Amino acid sequence: QVQLQESGPGLVKPSQTLSLTCTVSGGSISSGSYYWSWIRQPAGKGLEWIGRIYTSGSTNYNPSLKSRVTISVDTSKNQFSLKLSSVTAADTAVYYCARVLLPWYFDYWGQGTLVTVSS
Amino acid sequence: QSALTQPRSVSGSPGQSVTISCTGTSSDVGGYNYVSWYQQHPGKAPKLMIYDVSKRPSGVPDRFSGSKSGNTASLTISGLQAEDEADYYCCSYAGSYTFGVFGGGTKLTVL
Fold first, then answer.
1. A109: which of A47, A51, B45, B106 fits an S-S bond (Cβ 3.0–4.6 Å)?
2. pLDDT (tens digit per residue) in A73-95
3. Mind telling me how many Å the CA of B109 is from chain A's nearest CA?
4. Across the interface, do B45 and A112 touch by the CB < 8 Å criterion?
5. For A6, which residue in chain B has the nearest alpha carbon?
């Protein structure tokens, strides 16, 4: 059973960079034809796809966030990571990592981690 | 404003059926048979309930079914149970630029 767990600071100051890591257990991040994705959800609001990465390093990003997002993968640690630069209060949300079953289904999710942007 | 339009809330009594709609455009819902539905209980991560418009992952009860007509997808839950009370989100592939879009979510209340 694949499990995902997000980790990282819960508080980030405005204009700084938000950094989160997702650790995958129960299987190799490199096995199978899967992408790995980040999705966020502001309190009381809907889901927003941020981006995804294949274990080759190939990435795709939400056009609305593309200029600020970087997703990377470390297969040796079975982890993938998110960096979101120049954050504002609008980036405050629960951030989820998820496995992407091609072409576009999120079949395993982490529990989510709340990131608050505040000084 | 979400890319896909869902009703904000629906309700039904135990044993009844409810249908949640998800309206997009020919660039997403109407253009691809890659619609999925997610169930989210408060404080929990979303759970995949339907994919490829109408397929159920292993373990999802057959009370949950999906369909699509034109630019509108639908999720139908029959034989409503108390544990079905949750938020439901639709999601569609939208091509190799936008990739994927979610609906704004629908809160299902079991009366």
1. B45
2. 999 999 999 999 999 999 999 99
3. 16
4. yes
5. B45
